[in-house]
């Protein structure tokens, strides 16, 4: 599997399939815990990376952010903190953050992709800034595939030459925004049970199975307390 697939958990969240998103995310986070980074490609059969570089991709952070927004489980704040710690420890340089040439040796390349700033850092920032306007009024915003935030302005959906155009939408944008919020009520994610918000998102047995699947269990990094 490749690192880009780590974004699939985010897609599952947006589709309302929270339980599957939790499982998908756990697989990629287990790999991160093993290497303190996510290899570009990981081989299920050997349980080892076969493309070892990590170009500071945002997909795991994006899924972590959306899962926290959907569940409000502090576990995902811990995940974000773990990722941030690894980035600071292994990729930070005197003038930016560097691609890891080899996640096993943590050797660096003289390169920082633009998506690190536009996506990886942005999703980490929004994960921890819980009172950010984007989080408080999430139904009013949409993210592009490159992490750019676009406000959904309903006034722009109306054409002045249409007879049934609501002209006051142009004059009172707040009422238009309220209509958008109402339209999202029936399409929101299912309510996440209150009692699960302060527990591990998966059972310890299930987490153990996932850890074994990616070779995290019984590795030297695990026995010494983690790879990051």
From TrEMBL:
Primary enzyme class: hydrolase
Keyword Endoplasmic reticulum on entry: yes
Pfam family for this entry, one: Glyco_hydro_47
GO molecular function, one term: mannosyl-oligosaccharide 1,2-alpha-mannosidase activity
Compartments where found: Endoplasmic reticulum
One GO term of the biological process aspect: endoplasmic reticulum mannose trimming
Coiled coil: none
InterPro entries (alphabetical): 6hp_glycosidase-like_sf, EDEM1/2/3, Glyco_hydro_47, Seven-hairpin_glycosidases
E.C. designation(s): 3.2.1.-
Assigned GO CC terms: endoplasmic reticulum quality control compartment; membrane
Record: residues binding Ca(2+): 145
Alphabetical UniProt keywords: Calcium, Endoplasmic reticulum, Glycoprotein, Glycosidase, Hydrolase, Metal-binding
Names of the cofactor(s): Ca(2+)
Presence of the UniProt keyword Calcium in the record: yes
Gene3D superfamilies: 1.50.10.10
PANTHER family, per the entry: ER DEGRADATION-ENHANCING ALPHA-MANNOSIDASE-LIKE PROTEIN 1, ER DEGRADATION-ENHANCING ALPHA-MANNOSIDASE-LIKE PROTEIN 2
Family in the record: Belongs to the glycosyl hydrolase 47 family.
Official protein name in the record: alpha-1,2-Mannosidase
